[in-house]
Amino acid sequence: MSVLATAGPAEVEAREAPAAKRENRRKPMKRIIAIIQPCKLEAVETALIKAGVSGFNMTEVMGFGHQTEPAETCLWSKARVKFVPKTKVEVVVPDNMADQIVEAIAGSARTGQVGDGKIFVASINGAMRIRTGDRDEAAL
Ligand SMILES: Nc1ncnc2c1ncn2[C@@H]1O[C@H](COP(=O)(O)OP(=O)(O)OP(=O)(O)O)[C@@H](O)[C@H]1O
Ligand SMILES: [Mg+2]
Predict the structure, then answer these.
(1) Residue nearest to atom 31 of ligand 1 (CA)
(2) CB of 35 closer than 6 angstroms to any ligand 1 atom
(3) Which CATH fold would you assign to the domain 27-124?
C-alpha cells in the first residue's frame, strides 16, 4: 500500500510544503563563463541578445592555457607563463536556458583556429534584483 494512501491531506501538505517552498525560493540558475577571442565579442553579444538573455558582463583578461607560442622567460623572475589577451563574458541564466546559451556562444565565437577559447558552466544558488528585491529567476 502506498504511503500517500494512508496520509490525510494535512499530513501530505506538511511533508510536501517545505520542498515546494524551497523550490519556489531557489530556482536553479547557471553562470556561464566564456573565454573568447577579443575580436569575437561583438558576434557573441549579438548571439546572446538574440538568444534572449537579460544581461551579461564582459571583462578584458589575460589568459594562459595550452600554448602554441614560445614561452618568454624573464631573466630576473624565471616566469615561464605567457599570457595572451582574451575577453571573458559572463552571463547568468535560468537552468533550462544554459545549454542553448553555451551553443549560442560557441557558435558565434568559433573560428576553427587555435585559441578560440573555452566555456565553463557553474551553478548559481541565488540572485536578487536590488531595486525590487526580486529573487532568483525573477531577478535576472
Ligand atoms: N582551466 C582553466 N581555467 C580557466 N581558464 C582557462 C583554463 N584553461 C584555459 N583557460 C583560458 O582559456 C584560454 C585558452 O583558450 P584556448 O582556446 O587557447 O584553449 P586551448 O585548450 O589551447 O584550445 P585551442 O587548441 O583551440 O587553442 C586561456 O588563455 C585562458 O584564458
Ligand atoms: Mg590554445
Answers:
(1) 63
(2) yes
(3) Alpha-Beta Plaits (3.30.70)
Residue entry with cell 551579461: 56
Closest ligand to the CA of 114: 1
Cell, residue 108: 558565434
Cβ neighbors of 45 (< 8 A, separation 6 or more) are 56, 58
- Going from the Cα of 58 to the center of ligand 2, the distance in angstroms, rounded, reads 20
- Residue-wise pLDDT for 25-46, tens only, equals 578 999 999 999 999 999 999 9
Where exactly are the structural domains of the chain?
A: 27-124
- Evaluate: CB of 101 within 6 angstroms of ligand 1: no
pTM of the predicted structure, to 2 decimals? 0.79
Which stretches of the chain score pLDDT less than 70? 1-25, 67-80
